[in-house]
Amino acid sequence: MPLEKHEYISNVWSDGLFDGKVVFCTGGNGSICSAQVRALVHLGADACIVGRNVEKTEKVAQDIATARPGSRVLGIGAVDVRSIDSLQKAIDTCVKELGGIDFLIAGAAGNFLAPLAQLSPNAFKSVIDIDVLGSYNVTKLALPHLVASAKKHNSSSSLPKKQPPNSPSTSTSSSRSSSSSGPPGPGGRIIYVSATIHYTGLPMQTHVAVAKAGVDALSNNVAIEYGPLGVTSNVIAPGPIAGTEGMDRLAKKQQSTPGGYPGKGIPLGRWGLIKEIADATVYLFSDAANYVTGSALVVDGGAWRTAGTG
Ligand code: HXC
């Protein structure tokens, strides 16, 4: 059964916010990334999601497309982010079919619980390669398209233009109606889906913590090098979000549901919701975040600040 809007996005965003935009997303068949893309599609974007599993990726794409009649959502399977060749084909298909790339979500990630003593070099490398090399690969391939998108956006900037003296002031209602037909909206934006575990460390997650620290560093450097070209690069760091693969791996299965919070460790007193990551995504891709780059938006109910003691 298709999800109701309020189940995957808050009511504060205007329909049509991302009309004409295209998002490319790795890890797009996963619980968090598919929700991020669903929200963007609902708000007007077209999308291309890629994943390793062909059947799952195509099915999730079809499901996301139900968020908005008329949307175009490509699901391209057999893409391993560790292989730049398989990614290149997917990027080319996205650009050919959907006309470009305005937003990138680098969300593909590997995870399993293993104490350091039992972590083989290949196991460590597998996660580093999926998270860090994979994020690098997709960034490298998407950047020319993101730069083009940013250039288009900046040349027809939605920043308020200076009114000439004595010109009639614009009323609230007319500015609303002009903006609804209107501004081209942002382009050239990247979100890396990271984590908070490397802020403190977490047993059995050495490989993931090291990988996520690398992803954060990648985002920060992209922000610095590509800021002058109008591209923004930020990290979303989800905390414990109920109903995700990551939580299923880290918590007992019955605890990882929304009602399964054991009552300790999170200042806001509950697990996060997947839609709260979608909302953070919409914010960072919207004009409301025009001056935000090189940042990490932590969405964790304050959990990491307590380091598990709260
Ligand atoms: C120890 C393990 C292992 C485990 C795999 N390996 N699972 N070692 N414990 N549970 C080892 C293997 O033995 C092998 O090493 C090496 O890892 C590679 O395994 P493969 O299965 O060949 O690798 P591959 O097919 O490349 O898959 C890599 C994978 C992948 C990382 C294991 O299957 C995967 O990522 N699955 C999870 C996807 C997922 O849940 N994504 C959501 C992430 S959530 P040897 O030495 O034997 O060759 C997330 C949130 C993070 O990231 C934040 C949390 C707070």
Structure description:
- There is one protein chain.
- By secondary structure, the protein is an alpha/beta fold.
- The protein has eleven helices and seven strands.
- It has helices at residues 5-8, 31-42, 54-65, 84-98, 121-155, 172-181, 197-200, 206-226, 245-250, 274-285, 303-306; strands spanning 22-26, 46-50, 73-76, 103-106, 189-193, 232-238, 296-299.
- Strands 3-2-1-4-5-6-7 form a seven-stranded parallel sheet, sandwiched between helices.
- The two termini are 38 Å apart.
- The structure holds hexanoyl-coenzyme A.
- Hexanoyl-coenzyme A (HXC) is lined by residues 30, 109-112, 114, 118, 120, 122-123, 126-127, 130, 195, 197, 208, 245-246, 250.
- Residues 30, 109-112, 114, 118, 120, 122-123, 126-127, 130, 195, 197, 208, 245-246, 250 line the site of hexanoyl-coenzyme A.
- Residues 168-182 have a biased composition (Low complexity).
- Keywords: NADP, Oxidoreductase.
- Residues 152-186 are annotated as: Disordered.
- This is 2,4-dienoyl-CoA reductase [(3E)-enoyl-CoA-producing].
Which key features would you list for this structure?
about 300 residues; Rossmann fold; 7 strands; 2,4-dienoyl-CoA reductase (NADPH) activity
Task: List how many beta strands DSSP finds.
Answer: 7
In CATH terms, what is the architecture?
3-Layer(aba) Sandwich
CATH class: Alpha Beta
- Give the end-to-end Cα distance, rounded to a whole number of Å: 38 Å
Main structural class: alpha/beta
| Series of H and E elements | HEHEHEHEHHEHHEHHEH
Our Rg estimate from Cα atoms comes to 20 Å
CATH-defined topology: Rossmann fold
Number of H- or I-type helical stretches = 11
Spatial strand sequence of the major β-sheet: 3-2-1-4-5-6-7
Give the percentage of residues in beta strands: 5-15%
Unique bound compounds? hexanoyl-coenzyme A
CATH-assigned homologous superfamily: NAD(P)-binding Rossmann-like Domain
* Helix percentage range: 40-55%
